[in-house]
Design brief:
The chain has 559 residues and is α/β, with parallel strands linked by helices. Helices cover 18% and strands 29% of the residues. It has helices spanning 9-14, 34-37, 42-46, 59-68, 106-117, 154-171, 189-202, 261-273, 292-308, 468-471; strands at 16-20, 73-79, 120-125, 178-181, 207-208, 222-223, 239-244, 277-282, 327-332, 335-340, 350-353, 359-364, 367-371, 374-379, 384-389, 401-407, 417-418, 423-427, 432-436, 439-448, 452-463, 476-480, 483-487, 493-495, 505-517, 521-529, 547-556. β14 (374-379) and β15 (384-389) form a beta hairpin. α4 (59-68) crosses α5.
Length: 559
């Protein structure tokens, strides 16, 4: 598929959007998969339409809330897997206007309000899974309690419902920013191409996400796995992380497992520093209201974005090929934004190694009159450039503080994997992967600034419910130069509030040993493990992996 280069700009400028999972399932309050999970018969599920009357829905309030939160676009479920259309569809009377006492088209009202307030409206559409329709066929998730698989005629569903409803969405609601397709398992490459062509023929500037197909190289942008934040260097095209505020997507009564505002902002910053977008989800209830706790979180995020949004919107990702322990970096023009998290606030000056460009001035983004002292150094012997930023003793705010570095010339950095404040973090996305003996090896070239002892940790993501000892059954071998150690990884440290990992995964750190570095310089670090995987050539099913190797981290021990 040829990417739509001319219309992708608004998407990469936006960086932050609102996802809305809202449908007939809100009347049950057990999430959007309740029909499948409880194997509810179609006739029983249809009865929900008789009393579904979300008369507290207010398009102006929804759009205003998104705007106050700093969100630039809204993606709402026009039809989810339960097959119920949340718009007035002439293709099927199983929709909110024709089948419920509500009798209004919320998507039309949202389209009008988004146009007024300058927010892009986008639609989610479940094009393959539809548990209501007798002829929908998915690779795995089908309604087999009402219908027989062998009696299904997919093109009846595809040609008589899907394509007509996509046509309605793209011809009756004005300009649509993007169509967000989902769960395309089993769809043929030909039908995938046909769907993209249909969208582009109706609205050439409408973007299409990668989930339109399970075949590789589809979509104007990459939809990451649910709640997945990728590794540094993992993506080559624009991308987006869909994420929930709590654990649910559709309204789930009693789900108060909300991420903290601080955690959400740290995740937004991390995503932006890698050049991605955050699509943050809310699940309105059966009355059409966004839950109070969700709204409160969005208001708090908006307060931070009002002061610091310049460091997010329209920025480029960090030029450094790794994450920093203290926070993250974004770029825009001649400005470098240092996002320093309050829980990682340095006790002394913030040192950034490999920063070659002369800095003109440094100041606090939210208070430009507050200047920040800094020093720059260069060691000819070690080829090391360093920037020292003299931070106040206490964090500037309770969330991420943003320091602006205004550059005197074009930004240049040392692109090596270089020690930063005694830490080197090596993502598997940047590793050279080779087959050696009966397992894969991941290899990095690292630049160590100080001699001494370094602890080496393996960072792994473990899926909820997985038994660690059943998955990690073989030793991991680590080599730095000629120093080799072999160890069976343990769950030595469980990170409960990770910048990059969240439910249904948990970040695990395993100690692999201590390595003595005799002198500064360049070293090869190599890790052998049966869990090392080659980089995927097509879409990766993120949540299929029981465990996933994320990074290797070197930490300098105290002198």
């Amino acid at each position: 598929m040829v990417e739509n280069k001319s219309s992708i700009d608004w998407f990469t400028e936006a960086r932050f959007g609102m996802f809305i999972h809202w449908g007939l399932y809100a009347a049950i309050g057990k999430g959007e998969w309740v029909m499948y999970g409880q194997k509810k018969p179609v006739k029983e599920y249809e009865q929900l339409t008789e009393t579904f009357n979300p008369n507290l829905f207010n398009a102006k309030e929804w759009v205003s809330l998104a705007k106050r939160a700093g969100m630039k676009y809204i993606v709402i479920t026009a039809k989810h897997h339960d097959g119920f259309a949340m718009f007035h569809s002439k293709a099927d009377k199983y929709n909110i206007v024709d089948s419920t006492p509500f009798g209004r088209d919320p998507l039309k009202e949202l389209a009008e309000e988004c146009a007024k307030q300058g927010v892009k409206l986008c639609f989610y559409y479940s094009h393959v899974i539809d548990w209501h329709h007798p002829h929908s066929i998915h690779e795995h998730y089908n309604n087999t309690w009402d219908y027989q698989l062998e009696e299904k005629a997919f093109y009846n569903y595809w040609n008589r419902l899907v394509k007509p409803q996509i046509t309605e969405l793209l011809t009756q609601y004005g300009p649509v920013g993007l169509l967000w397709f989902d769960t395309s398992g089993g769809l043929s490459k030909k039908d995938s191409e046909e769907m993209v062509q249909l969208v582009k023929s109706l609205q050439p500037d409408c973007l299409v996400n990668s989930r339109v197909s399970h075949w590789p190289n589809f979509g104007d942008f990459q939809s990451k796995g649910d709640n997945e934040i990728p590794m540094s260097g993992e993506d080559t095209k624009p991308w987006e992380t869909p994420m929930t505020l709590n654990k649910s997507w559709g309204y789930y009564e009693g789900d108060d497992n909300y991420k903290s505002t601080d955690s959400i902002i740290r995740k937004l910053v991390n995503i932006s520093s890698k050049g991605g977008n955050l699509l943050l989800n809310v699940g309105p209830d059966e009355l059409g209201e966004i839950p109070v706790l969700s709204a409160e979180k969005l208001e708090e995020i908006g307060e931070w974005m009002h002061k610091n949004g310049e460091s997010i919107y329209g920025t480029k990702g960090s030029p450094f090929p790794y994450e920093f322990d203290w926070g993250a970096i974004t770029l825009k023009g001649n400005k470098v934004f240092l996002h320093i998290h309050h829980n990682k606030w340095p006790s002394g000056p913030l040192q950034i190694n490999g920063f070659k460009t002369k800095v003109h001035q440094a100041y606090v983004l939210s208070e430009p009159q507050q200047k920040i002292p800094f020093q720059q150094e260069h060691s000819d012997n070690e080829g090391l450039y360093s920037l020292h930023v003299e931070l106040p003793k206490e964090p500037l705010c309770e969330l991420s503080s943003v320091i602006v570095l205004e550059l005197a010339e074009e930004l240049k950095i040392d692109p090596a994997f270089i020690e930063q404040a005694g830490v080197i973090k090596l993502d598997f996305g940047h590793a050279k992967i080779e087959k050696e003996q009966n397992q894969n090896a991941a290899e990095w070239q690292v630049k160590i600034a100080e001699k001494g002892k370094y602890e080496v940790h393996l960072i792994t993501y473990k899926k909820a419910g997985v038994d660690w000892k059943s998955e990690l059954t073989e030793k991991v071998e680590v080599a730095i130069g000629n120093n080799v150690k072999s160890i069976l990884p343990n769950e030595d440290d469980i990170v409960t509030d990770s910048e990059t990992c969240q439910y249904p995964y948990t970040e695990i750190h395993s100690q692999l040993g201590v390595f003595e570095i005799d002198q500064p310089g360049k070293y090869t670090l190599k890790l052998h493990s049966n869990k090392v995987r080659e980089k995927p050539k097509g879409p990766e099913i993120w949540q299929a992996a029981a465990v996933k190797l994320r990074a290797v981290k070197m930490i300098k021990m105290e002198r």
